[in-house]
Predict the 3D structure of the following.
Amino acid sequence: MASKVVVVLSGGQDSTTCLYWALDRFGVDNVLALTFDYGQRHRIELDCAANVAQHTRVAHTTLPIDTFLALGGNALTDAGIAVDEAPGNALPNTFVPGRNLIFLTFAAAFAWQRDIVDLVTGVAQTDYSGYPDCRRDTIDELEKTLGLGMQREFRIHTPLMNLSKKETVEMARDLGALDAMALTHTCYNGLRPPCGECPACRLRVKGFLEAGIADPLASI
């Protein structure tokens, strides 16, 4: 029997590319998409994740974990904080402390209940926007911790870890994911069509421009 895999699907460009990566390697019947309702300001993320899952015909589950909303203190959950780029080496205010650690812990628990050991996440340290929970060493140590804590040897796949946004766009093209890009959401300001001005929008635009590929989201 083929192995199954759990993909953390946010509804964004990177996680959608990773979903197609998993589909290519595991097959549609073996892919489970997992989305977290963590109290994010822009609920459009949840709609986009559901639309991408429906488009790819994969099984999709949304888990409510709204403690991040109660914690606040960042621009992705707190409506009173405007998106701002970090000065110097400081973390940007779009950093949600512990988010990827919590996501992967819940994903592992979800997988454990289903006898699944393979997890996929769209983190990348090349264009990681200053987020320490996107780095290779963080993921490696978390993989060890989850294995010890749940007595199962999980494998956390990070297909985008060492890719630039340009290379991520090229991967999406090669995997046949470009049509699905029109269903994704990237904008930190929660706009669709995207604002084109926030750090996430600028990074996405840069990637598509450098790859010489038109962004399907730009034409909606």
